[in-house]
Amino acid sequence: MLWMIFYNIILYPIFFFLILFISPFNKKMRLGFIGRLKSIKELKVFMKHTDLDTDIYWFHAASLGEYEQIKPVLAGLKEVEPNSKSIVSFFSPSGYNYVNDQNIDCKIYLPFDFFWVINRCLKIVNPKKLIFAAYDVWPNLIWRAKNLNIHTTLFAARFSSNTSKLFPFIKNFYKNVYASFSAIYTITKSDNELLRLILQNSIKPTLRVLGNPRYDEVKIKADSFTIERTKSVLQRPKALLVGSIHIEDENIIMNSIVSLMKELNDLSLIWAYHEPKNRYLDSAETFFRSKDFSVERLSKTNPDKLKARVCLVDSIGQLANLYWYGQIAYIGGGFSTGVHNVMEPAIARLPIFFGPRYNNSNEAEELIIDGGGFNIDSGTDLYLGVKKLFDIKTEFIKSSYASTNVVHRNLGSSTRVVRNIIHD
């Protein structure tokens, strides 16, 4: 009760007014804020056209990346219970705006996590189960669901060894939140052990180690994309794929990549920002042209017809396929908020480089252990690492195989998650 009062009177109001203050100056926050104002109305419209005895599963994902974990689970659930309905809520516009899945019956922004708003939403929908992916848990949504006897599940849960959730004051808060779940499925045994440290002696939810469904999703995508998939990675164009780049990555690696391209005359570059804003693209084009490289944008050509040394990816949703047109990948985020999706280049058989902030990614850690992934601390590290792989083919092939093996070794999680969601 004490934590509920603290969260509702202090923590969430501070968060709410901070978002309210920043929204006029930040498009993503503004879109999310406006979208949340419409969520209750959208739920009412959905329920008006839904039979009262229909089983409804409410999934929540922070953004597009977390939805990649939900997608195979949602598809599996629809196969087992075809008459059920699925609501999917998103916190970020990067999820809401770019997810278009036939298995979603209702797509909304996550409602504001005020007690009275959440209470109203849950009573409108009365879901059979409320299912969270990865990390984006909202206390009032969890607490109120528990009070209404709505089963809550968190899957693909991940806890790093240096998580702040183990700090004394913060730990007590999260102990209360996680103990309110009905079931929690972690990715690894290590995650499960850290979760038990947070929960301590509380009455625990059902705890299971079920892996990460995102591996299944990248495999599904790869199976549906057949161009060059049967070819050896060494038969592809000699291209470096730089995906999901932040400005912080750019500042570290850009000059080193130029040095690589000047030394390796047959090396081309496919460059994709995490958010392909025009000002980023224009700046990159000016920079690469100043280094005497030809530049073209992906919207003006096809991946298999690239003629320029540098291709700038100017739209979202292309990367999963583009990785099959190159030989080595650098994945962004490791010098800022945390490394992005490394599994899509892994299934495409690419050795993968990324920055030092990779503790958010169990997949990146596995890649390093197996030899398919490489952590860099500087542009020089990237230059030397890429050059070594291009110079020594045995090392290249070994790394390529290790990268893909990480994905194949972890397949099957979505089936396990679906089975346990239904039966727990």
CATH superfamily of the largest domain: 3-Deoxy-D-manno-octulosonic-acid transferase, N-terminal domain
Ranges with pLDDT <50 over ≥5 residues?
226-230
What's the main sheet like? 7 strands, parallel
Briefly note the CATH topology name of the largest domain: Rossmann fold
Distance between the termini: 27 Å
Helix content: 40-55%
How would you describe this structure to a colleague?
This protein is α/β, with parallel strands linked by helices and 424 residues long. It folds into 2 domains: 226 residues, Rossmann fold; 190 residues, Rossmann fold. Helix content is 48%, strand content 16%. Helix 9 links the parallel strand 6 and strand 7. The protein is globular, with a radius of gyration of 22 Å. The protein starts with a helix and ends with a helix.
Protein topology:
Blueprint: H1 2-22, H2 27-37, H3 39-48, E1 56-61, H4 64-80, E2 85-90, H5 93-96, E3 106-109, H6 115-125, E4 129-133, H7 139-147, E5 151-157, H8 168-178, E6 183-186, H9 189-199, E7 206-209, H10 214-224, E8 239-245, H11 247-263, E9 268-273, H12 278-290, E10 295-297, E11 310-313, H13 319-322, E12 328-331, H14 343-347, E13 352-354, H15 362-370, E14 373-375, H16 379-391, H17 393-409, H18 413-423
Parallel strand pairs: 1-2, 1-4, 2-3, 4-5, 5-6, 6-7, 8-9, 8-12, 9-11, 10-11, 12-13, 13-14
Helix pairs in contact: 3-6, 4-10, 4-18, 6-7, 11-16, 15-17, 16-17
